[in-house]
Amino acid sequence: MREFVMSDNFTIKIRRQDGPDAKPYWQEFEVNFRPGMNVVIALQDIRRDPVTIDGVKADPVVWECSCLEEVCGSCAMVINGRARQACSALIEDLDRPVTLEPLAKFPVVRDLMVDRSSLFENFARVRAWIPIDGTYPMGPGPQVSQEEQEAAYPLARCITCGCCLAACPQVNNNSSFMGAAVLNQATLLNSYPTGRMNRAARLDVVRGDGGLAGCGNAQNCERVCPKSIPLVSSIARLNREALLDAVKRWLGK
Amino acid sequence: MKQANIIVIGGGLAGLMTTIKIAEAGQKVQLFAMQPVRRSHSVCAQGGINAAINLKGEGDSIWTHFDDTVYGGDFLANQPLVKRMCEAAPDIVELTARMGVMYNRTPEGNLDFRRFGGTKFHRTAFAGTTTGQQLVYALDEQVRRHEAEGLVTKFEGWELLSPVIHNGACRGITAMNLNTMEVRAFPADAVVAATGGIGAIFGLSTNSLVNTGSAASALYQAGAVYANPEFVQVHPTAMPGEDKLRLISESARGEGGRVWVPRDGRPWYFLEDWYPAYGNLVPRDIASRAIFKVVHELGLGVDGGEVVYMDISHLNPRDIDRNLYGIAEIYERFSGDDPRKVPMRVFPAVHYNMGGLWVDDSMATNVPGLFAAGEAEYQHHGANRLGANSLVSCIFDGMVAGPAAVAYAEGLQKRSGEISSGIFEAEANLQRDINADILNTGGTENPFDLFREMGDLMRKNVTVIRKNDDLKKTDEKLAEMLERCGRLNVVDKSPVANTSLVFARELKNMLILARAITVGALMRDESRGAHYKPEYPMRDDAGWLKTTRASFTPDGPEISYEPVDVSLIVPRERHYDVD
Ligand SMILES: Cc1cc2nc3c(=O)[nH]c(=O)nc-3n(C[C@H](O)[C@H](O)[C@H](O)COP(=O)(O)OP(=O)(O)OC[C@H]3O[C@@H](n4cnc5c(N)ncnc54)[C@H](O)[C@@H]3O)c2cc1C
After folding, report:
1. Contacts B107 to A, Cβ<8 Å
2. A199 lies in which domain range?
3. What is the interface pTM, i.e. ipTM, of the complex?
4. What is the model's pTM?
5. What would the DSSP string read from start to end of B100-138?
6. How confident is the prediction along chain A (253 residues), in pLDDT tens digits per residue?
7. Has domain B5-231+354-417 been given CATH number 1.10.3720.10?
8. For ligand 1, mutation pick of B391, B396, B399, B513 (most atoms within 8 Å of CB)
9. Are A40 and B243 in contact (CB < 8 Å)?
10. Which residues 291-320 in chain B show a CB within 8 A of chain A?
């Protein structure tokens, strides 16, 4: 790839869709390169004055973004074929022309904006919470060893962007597989001293429909995770727990 | 218990805690947020959350936390409420640990604490460098639990447009669905606004792009008093950038990071030189002004530019990975340089709004039935916020605002459901008309260009150094921009996810709030905390130990003042060079 110089223009190809039921189509835009530029800045440029490469006036491109530092998870989209955050996709590191598509596997709202509410519904299914007694003062809570904390913290860095689902071959219209982000939440909660108390209920869910059995071990999730979460071992650990728990229950009968 | 119906606007830490408290009291909540609550700006908080638990045996105490906060805020905060916040802080940190926040731990398994600015104590609990995210997720899951039990209904992707005011009281809101653009009125017995900060008014800031202050502005325009608008914090260390000024958290200095510029071929640690008692951990207003002095007056910016070094390269890489990983990751990703090896290039950036909707000790605004919480309100931080004090104030506010809203709603003579639906429909129609107007004007002003102009103007004249003639010109310019804002050219006419229309509405609200900030600054002829005027370089307690109250009028803000409650700590001179 050639080094960029200030005056260079580059082309962005965007897969557009005017509404949830509309037909997708492609448009190309030319954008002026500046050092440090990311995909969000390029989209902002286009929004200011949306004219295609052929000089046709277009509607501004719609996308989501908020924190611009890879922690809110809003701006996930497919960039040059790969699911990732637009804010941390620097133009100078990308092959040109740059191709943008909405995050796969989620219903499109408009252009690059998708509806990821299914993720949150699945968090509810795996009860990704600790049922605390109440919010009144009750002392410091459990002690946690440094070792446990250091093992669990990387799992807690998930930003709910949905890239792992977008890249997963098992997440599709014919399956109810909830995906790595959701299973990882179950692993995380099960690893906390008090979260462990509701482990059995979580394991019941992940053993059921859309749960662990859906994972085909393609390992794409870990490859695309912007936070490098060890999702493969996280799911493997949940698998082990689920198995052990099932055996224990069976023996206990 | 009478069944009430309460609306919370905002799903950051303040809104989530408010929601949990209301649900815990058995009342129903409708929770509105522009985005899935997990994507709220609170997730950006890196450094940590303050609580004087004194687990390091340094002799820290609630009183010292209180004193540091009031002193750090240059005595502009009403003291009794700040004291209550500091008292609640240990319970808040422990509560969130019980919710599963992965706080860093000591070898014995207790909460670990680090240092932050404006204090001598290890008072900041932290979960790596993603404390805000961990807190939001934990609170969000508690809300989800209440949601599963039917107490909470979430309206994610809905934007507050206006409050519905009837006979002087807030009886609900109008809101717009950001996907379908549907505008609807929602009756409520009480409304809590936890809508966060205002960074976007300055164009570029450390804030998330959604932090426009538009909601607070809409409430202000409907009669809510806005307090201390002129107090806007500029954080000393952020990465320069075209889309955002990414924060390099104060925790970097808390863990031993040092700020310097080259002078005569050698590093000059000017903060350590000038402020030996606190060194790199002086409060933010002091550090930002020092950097301005070094760069603009002494001409010592790195490579002659608006840059100083923030250096952690001398720290043990293993400690960086354990305690500052998120910072190193952000810096590396966006600059391409590894801060474990080279010093980071930073400059001050707009960061936090000490001002906000005026509230009393129970988070009630002057409009009955309307409450405010979190960064959207003005209590606690006075003229300058101390690092890691915001997360705790947001959660504390939720703990106060939630029960206060419940008490208010339960005590109402007439439920909002009993009020004629015509009142609500009228307000919704008004808001629909505004949308139609924006889409049909066919003006010539590009909203995004106008936004940039506003931001450039505000950054230039209303941040670290303020001069009266600049401020005066700025307000005139803002008034002119407001007029131009009535002639926008919104290209997008789509009825689906029309983000340009949304932005156009927000822009007007931003401009209106920008005027309050500017006029507040113009009128305050002293220097206090983040507000600094070279023409009036000293704090002036005789003239200005008072809270600014801005009320909206179409011709600009109407400013009045009220005394500050300094009943617990006698104001004293503030300096960080000696103890
Ligand atoms: C980069 C960065 C790092 C920080 N680090 C720290 C730290 O380490 N420690 C610390 O104490 N503080 C820190 N702060 C400050 C702290 O993060 C914020 O002050 C705090 O999170 C604000 O929380 P909040 O709940 O008031 O608002 P937010 O978290 O901003 O939430 C606002 C909510 O309101 C919603 N909303 C806004 N307008 C509308 C509308 N019109 N209609 C519907 N919903 C609306 C939003 O969608 C969002 O859900 C940091 C700030 C920044 C910028």
Report:
1. 146
2. 117-251
3. 0.96
4. 0.97
5. T----B-TTSSBPEEE-TT-SSEEEE-STT-HHHHHHHH
6. 345 555 589 999 999 999 999 999 999 999 999 999 999 999 999 999 999 999 999 999 999 999 999 999 999 999 999 999 999 999 999 999 999 999 999 999 999 999 999 999 999 999 999 999 999 999 999 999 999 999 999 999 999 999 999 999 999 988 999 999 999 999 999 999 999 999 999 999 999 999 999 999 999 999 999 999 999 999 999 999 999 999 998 898 6
7. no
8. B391
9. yes
10. none
